């Protein structure tokens, strides 16, 4: 029989706390630290805005890096909690989740790059101001691409984890369903992005993902897991 965690409910609540922080810091990194300074169709104005609000931009970068670190504990805890329901699927979800986290961590360079391209930088002395601005904007585009690649792996992880939550018996079935909807939302958004479909989705996939992830994060933080049923499932496994 597999060794059981001392307190699965406590671990679930710790995972929920990490998850809530990830959502908050991720929103700040995206809306304030990055997209909040982008001037659509104007690379020069975007680079000037980053230079004028460099501290805000750096905080956004740090927020994103912290989310990459915070994502590891809940990923491992969810694997342990869902392993009794389906060991192979839980391990597969773990690999997809950690792959997403690795992609996002490596992709962070593209968000930091504009700070190295600000006017007056010794490293960019051979480039004109327009070239610096264009390159800075390109690195942000590359960051968007890398982010969508990471979310593609994450979408599969959420679909698998949601399915295991749904059939676990120690989490409510509706929670698994909305977690799967979150994964589907990311998958639809990534497909639309990569294929250049530009579908009029009005942000529905992103809202569905935010709702599903927020529901899971809050449930883990406030309720945790039905410990008696989890231990019974763990013994049976």
Structure commentary:
The protein is an all-alpha fold. The protein has one domain. Helix content is 76%, strand content 0%. It has helices at 8-31, 43-52, 54-70, 72-82, 87-112, 129-168, 173-195, 204-222, 227-236. Helix 1 runs antiparallel to helix 3 (54-70), helix 6 runs antiparallel to helix 7 (173-195) and helix 7 packs antiparallel against helix 8 (204-222). The longest helix has 40 residues, at 129-168. The protein is elongated. It starts with 7 loop residues before the first helix and ends with a helix. The model has no long low-confidence stretch (mean pLDDT 92).
Write the layout of secondary structure elements.
Blueprint lengths: L7 H24 L11 H10 L1 H17 L1 H11 L4 H26 L16 H40 L4 H23 L8 H19 L4 H10 L1
Helix pairs in contact: 1-3, 1-4, 1-8, 2-6, 3-5, 4-5, 5-6, 6-7, 7-8
Question: Concise description?
Answer:
The chain has 237 residues and is mainly α.
Instruction: Give the C-alpha Rg.
Output: 20 Å
Overall average pLDDT? 92
Report the major sheet.
none
Structural class: mainly alpha
Q: What's the number of helices?
A: 9
Give short descriptive properties of this protein:
mainly alpha
């Amino acid at each position: 029989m597999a060794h059981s965690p001392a307190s699965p409910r406590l671990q679930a609540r710790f995972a929920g706390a990490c998850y809530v922080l990830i959502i908050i810091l991720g929103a700040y990194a995206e809306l304030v630290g990055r997209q909040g300074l982008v001037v659509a169709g104007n690379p020069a104005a975007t680079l000037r805005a980053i230079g004028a609000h460099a501290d805000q931009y750096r905080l956004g970068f740090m927020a994103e890096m912290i989310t990459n670190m915070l994502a590891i504990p809940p990923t491992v805890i969810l694997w342990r909690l869902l392993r009794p329901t389906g060991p192979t699927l839980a391990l597969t979800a773990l690999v997809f989740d950690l792959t997403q986290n690795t992609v996002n961590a490596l992709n962070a360079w593209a968000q930091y790059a504009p700070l190295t391209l600000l006017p007056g930088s010794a490293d960019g002395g051979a480039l004109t101001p327009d070239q610096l601005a264009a390159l800075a904007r390109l690195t942000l585009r590359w960051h968007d691409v890398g982010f969508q690649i990471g979310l593609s792996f994450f979408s599969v992880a959420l679909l698998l984890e949601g399915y295991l939550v749904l059939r676990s018996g120690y989490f409510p079935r509706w929670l698994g369903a909305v977690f799967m909807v979150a994964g589907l939302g990311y998958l639809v958004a990534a497909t639309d992005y990569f294929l250049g479909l530009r579908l009029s989705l009005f942000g529905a996939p992103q809202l569905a993902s935010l709702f599903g992830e927020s529901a899971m994060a809050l449930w883990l933080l406030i309720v945790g897991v039905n410990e008696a049923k989890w231990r019974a499932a763990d013994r049976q496994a």
